[in-house]
């Protein structure tokens, strides 16, 4: 029988054997998989691990701070934080097509990561949070068995110029096992059991062209929604929940004045496998509270809608 503690011991031994006294680089995203790899490798090889955390300006509210707090300050992991928000936003300027936006974000990530990696001397290994379903998915897409609907950049985005050997300690594990490892390694529960967040981040939750103004509004709206889901005990009853920024102007009346302001859509789903999903039947009182807070607290938003579409056909993300 495998327990999380045994898997950790086993992987620590394997990593030490593979790496020896050499150095490992890891792209830390703040997601569960790369976080667990960071904690595991830190335990195995300490300062021989350097993490690069790319802040693309499309993260959730306070996410960058939380990553630095947990890993750098709390655990003593070597983390380089790159503020790449201006670069990502300038590359995205004028682009409204969802798949083109995904490509830009993915390519810019590789570019930034590559540049940071080149500054670190003596790195021989690249660690990745590849888990078993990723292995299956990328194998299937290579043989053409799976129809690749969206360009995910989690697997296989390794720049060819970086001749690094891969370290993938989670390759044989399923998500629930990875989470158990995370808890065992002492990562915060909220980090380990957080809803999934797409690689392109808020980039695919701002419909059409991405702008800093939109991202800032969306971050605030999303934080309010998530906070109220937690307060109402609904966060863990949903599989994924988030706000979406709609770049349309809808009318709001304040006193005698008509204001044309942005619209925020709320999406919350229940799903087992993310291939099909049912919209979450959130209580009206909860929706009312979230709506009131978003409209009262965020300048520029005067309308909130709730998405009552199931997948299929409506994907979980709006783009
Ligand atoms: P959809 O929107 O296709 O989403 O129903 C299914 C799951 O995949 C996530 N998703 C992505 N994850 N890069 C990612 O890493 C992407 O481009 C991407 N698009 C969707 C989505 O958040 C949901 O969990």
TrEMBL record:
It is an enzyme of class 6 (ligase). The keyword Nucleotide-binding applies. It catalyses: XMP + L-glutamine + ATP + H2O = GMP + L-glutamate + AMP + diphosphate + 2 H(+). Its EC number is 6.3.5.2. Pathway: Purine metabolism; GMP biosynthesis; GMP from XMP (L-Gln route): step 1/1. GO terms for molecular function: ATP binding; GMP synthase activity. Residues 2-194 form the GMPS ATP-PPase domain. GO terms for cellular component: cytosol. Keywords: ATP-binding, Glutamine amidotransferase, GMP biosynthesis, Ligase, Nucleotide-binding, Purine biosynthesis. ATP binds at residues 29-35. The keyword Nucleotide-binding applies. Catalyzes the synthesis of GMP from XMP. Homodimer. This is GMP synthase [glutamine-hydrolyzing]. It comes from Halomonas fontilapidosi. The chain holds residues 207 to 525 of 525 of the full protein.
């Amino acid at each position: 029988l495998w327990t999380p503690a045994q898997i950790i011991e086993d992987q620590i031994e394997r990593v030490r054997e593979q790496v020896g006294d050499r150095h490992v680089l890891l792209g830390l995203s703040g997601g569960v998989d790369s976080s667990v790899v960071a904690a595991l490798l830190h335990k195995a090889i300490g300062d021989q691990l350097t993490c690069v955390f790319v802040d693309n300006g499309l993260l959730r509210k306070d996410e960058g701070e939380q990553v630095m707090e947990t890993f750098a300050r709390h655990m003593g992991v070597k983390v380089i934080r790159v503020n790449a928000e201006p670069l990502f936003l300038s590359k995205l300027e004028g682009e409204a097509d969802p798949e083109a936006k995904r490509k830009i974000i993915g390519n810019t990530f590789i570019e930034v990561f590559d540049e940071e990696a080149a500054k670190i001397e003596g790195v021989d290994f690249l660690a990745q949070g590849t888990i078993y379903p990723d292995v299956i998915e990328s194998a299937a897409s290579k043989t053409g068995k799976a129809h690749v609907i969206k360009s995910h950049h989690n697997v296989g985005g390794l720049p060819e110029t970086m001749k690094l050997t891969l370290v993938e300690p989670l390759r044989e594990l399923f998500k629930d096992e990875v989470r158990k490892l995370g808890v065992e390694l002492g990562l915060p529960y909220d980090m380990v059991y957080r809803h999934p967040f797409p690689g392109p981040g808020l980039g695919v939750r701002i419909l059409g062209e991405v702008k800093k103004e939109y991202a800032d509004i969306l971050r605030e709206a999303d934080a309010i929604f998530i906070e109220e889901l937690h307060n109402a005990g609904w966060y863990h009853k949903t599989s994924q929940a988030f706000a979406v920024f709609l770049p349309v102007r809808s009318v709001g009346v304040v006193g005698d004045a008509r204001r044309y302001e942005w619209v925020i859509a709320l999406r919350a789903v229940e799903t087992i496998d993310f291939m099909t999903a049912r919209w979450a039947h959130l209580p009206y009182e909860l929706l009312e509270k979230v709506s009131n807070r978003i409209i009262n607290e965020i300048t520029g938003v005067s309308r909130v809608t709730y998405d009552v579409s199931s997948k299929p056909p409506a994907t979980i993300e709006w783009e």
